[in-house]
Amino acid sequence: MAPTRIEWLQRVPVFGGLREESLRFLLELTRSVQVPRGEFFFREGDPASAMFVLESGAAAVVKGATEHSVELRRFEAGDCFGEMALMDLFPRSASVRALSDCAAIELGPADLHRLYELDPSQFALIQMNIGREVCRRLRAADELLFQARLREATPPPSR
What is the pLDDT of residues 37-95, one digit of tens each? Predict the structure, then answer.
């Protein structure tokens, strides 16, 4: 039997531990978006307005000018992106482009504020989950930076 949308969301790390009624409440507030292959969910420098939970399809984080952009990461169904928008409200630090036709849930700051008004403990849990996700990504980025610096500092083998 296929999981319900609520059961599926409970497996997404950002929503882990949230009660069914809280997820149902959030789903009533959020929007479903469709982004065709090759189009962008958002572009680097855009105002931060929401995070997205990918329900289907694949997307990539890209940074830099279009002709010189670098792919930093790929996302699949169940992954979220843009969560920094809900925390720091700064402009987007990178772009996210659909690699295939995508469907996603869009969750904005006002949606989270409504959850806060309804149940501050559930709001705190989702904020902690977002913080954990950001920390996991920071650790991974730190490791990549370390490996790159290590390669720069290591002399090539002599022949």
Answer: 999 999 999 999 999 999 999 999 999 866 778 899 999 999 999 998 888 888 999 99
Distance of CA 47 to the CA centre of its chain: 15
Q: Which phi-psi region, left, alpha or beta, contains residue 30 (left: φ > 0; alpha: ψ -120 to 50)? A: beta
Query: E strands, the chain, where?
Result: 31-35, 40-42, 51-56, 58-63, 70-76, 80-81, 95-98, 102-107
Q: Superfamily assignment of 5-151 in CATH?
A: Jelly Rolls (2.60.120.10)
Cα–Cα distance, 1 to 11 (Å, whole number): 16
CA 61/CA 74 separation, integer angstroms? 6
Query: What does the mean pLDDT of the chain come to?
Result: 91
